[in-house]
Design brief:
With 121 residues, the protein is an all-alpha fold. The chain has 4 helices and no strands. It is 87% helix and 0% strand.
Length: 121
């Protein structure tokens, strides 16, 4: 029994050490790469900082980079994930707007064709 009591503090120290090791977040380098790609893709389709989602993505990406420098990896990961989502939302908004413009153009052409066909009959 006395051996068990003497081993207890050592066991407790091992548990605390292992928990501390699990609490450390690894650097989110891969997430930052994904976020940078998402921002680049959104920019490539026409998203600009004038759009709120794109501005938010840029700001959060900048904050994630700063958090990485400070080794605040959990914060960096959260900021990078949010920035990725904001960039994807900005991209979707631009693509939706472009699709709406194309649809409007197609509808205008159809209307002209209908009028032409109606005038010829």
């Amino acid at each position: 029994m006395s051996v068990f009591l003497k081993a207890r503090p050592l066991f407790a120290a091992l548990v605390v050490t292992s928990l501390f090791g699990c609490a450390n977040d690894p650097a989110p380098a891969e997430q930052l790469k994904l976020t940078e790609q998402a921002v680049a893709q959104a920019t490539a389709v026409g998203a600009t900082d004038d759009e709120p989602n794109m501005a938010a993505a840029q700001a959060k990406l900048t904050q994630a980079r700063a958090d990485m420098t400070e080794k605040s990896y959990k914060q960096a990961r959260m900021q990078a994930e949010q920035a990725e989502l904001d960039a994807r939302l900005a991209e979707a908004g631009v693509l939706t707007e472009k699709s709406q413009e194309q649809l409007t153009q197609v509808n205008a052409r159809l209307d002209r064709l209908r009028k032409q066909l109606g005038a010829e009959q």
